[in-house]
Amino acid sequence: MKKYITIVLLALIALSCTKDLEELNVNKKDFATTTDASLFTSAQYKLFNQITETSVNENIFRLIVQNWTETTYTDEANYDLKTRNIDEFHWEVLYRGVLKNFKESKSLVSGLPDVQTNKIATIELYEIYTYYVLVTSFGDIPYTEALDIDILNPVFDKQEETIFYDLLDRLDNNVISKFITDEVGFSASEDIIYGGDIAKWKKFANSLKLQMGMLIADVNPTKAETVVNTAITSGVFTSADDNMKIAFESAAPYTNPVYAALVLSGRDDFIPTNTIVDMMNTLNDPRRDDYFTLYEGAYKGGISGELNSFGQFSHVSDKIGNDPELEAPLMTYYEVEFLLAEAVERGFITGTAETHYNNAIAASIKYWGGTDAEVNTYLGQTSVAYSSTTGNYKQKIGTQKWLALYNRGFESWTEWRRLDFPSLSAPAGAKTTNGQPPYRLTYPTVELTLNEDNLNAASTSIGGDELETKLFFDTF
User: Which residue segment(s) compose the domain that 182 sits in?
Assistant: First the structure.
C-alpha cells in the first residue's frame, strides 16, 4: 500500500509542477489581446525615444555632432560604437521595436471590417520615416526582405536606387494621395502626436518629402527639384503649430530620456562643447541661456573627446535637462524654412533665400521662448545677416541650422553630412582616421555573425563598412 501511495503522491507533485510551470509562461498583467492602437502607440513611443535618447549605450548623436562631450568617460565622444554596441542598439530598436510593431499594427488594421485608409496611411508614413533613419545611418540595409519570419538571412538592398527612391514612391502613392482629411484615423487618445488631425499628418508627410528631396539635391538635382516642388505644392509646415513632436510624461519610465540621463541617473556625464559654446558666444546668440548654464558668469564649453571636469564648465540648461515633460520633435517649422532657403539657392523654387533663412532663425529663437527684439538684434549682426555673413549658401544655412538643431542629434548629424558646415574636427583620440566625425554608423557585429554573406556584400556595395565611408547623398 505504501508503494502505491508514494506513486500517487509523485504523480500529484508532477501534475502540480506542470501546472505551475505553465502559469509561469502567462503574463497576468498583460492584455488578453493586442490591438492595432496599442501596437501603434508603442511603436511611436519607441521611435521618438530612440531619436531623443542620449544614453551612451543607445544614442551618441549629440556627441558625434559636438553639441555635448563627456566627463567621466570619453570613448563615445571619440566615436567608439563597438564597446557598448551602440550601432547594434540603434539597428535593433528601429527594426524590432519600431518597424515590427508598425507592421503588426498595420496587419490588424487591414483586417478590420471597415476601410481604415487614414490609419494605414499614418502607419505607412511612420515606416517610411523609420527606414529613412536607417538608410541614412548605415547605407545598404535589409528592406525588401526585412521583417519576413520566413527569411532568416535577408539581403541588404541598395541604399539609393532600391530603398530611397522606393520610399519616395511609397510616400506619394501610399500616404500623401491616400490621406482623407475629412475622415478619422487613429483617435485623439491613440494618436499621441496630432490627436487624430489628418490635415496635420498630411503636412508632415509633405515636409518629410521636402526633406528627402533636399537630401538628394547634390546627387540627383533633377529628381530633387521635382520632389521638392510637388511637396511644397501639396502643403508643408507653415508655422510652429505644425511641428511633429511628442510630449513626454512627468513620471518614469515615460519621461523625456534626456531627463532620465541627466537627472534620474544621478550622474554628471555630459557638458556642452566649446565647439558650439564658443561659436554662440562670438555670435551673441540669444539661445545660449536656453541651451547652457553659466559658469562663473560666462558660457564655457569642454573640449570634445577629452576628460573634462564637470564642475569647471557650463552644463546643459535646466530647460532641457530638468524638465521630464520636455517635448521632442522629429521635424519642425524652422527646419522647413531652412530647406526652403536652400531650395531657392539651388534654383528649385522661386523666392528669396534670405527671407526663408530669417524665418527659420526667428522660428528657432521663438521655439525656445525668445522675443522679436532678440530675433531682430541677432539677425541685425553682420556675422549673422544673410547678405553679409561669411561663406556660400551652404555655409550660411548649414551653420545656422546646426545651431538651431542643438539637442537634435540625429537630424543635426544628417544635415552636417549633407551641407558640410560648420567645419567639425574629430578629437585627437577619435576612432575615425580622417580627422572628421563619422559619416555613417558601422554595421552591428551580430549581423556579421548571423548574416555574414549578405553583410559582406553590403560592405562591398557601399565602399567599406567604415565610419569614414560616405553614404549615397553625401557627395562632397
Answer: 36-252+326-462
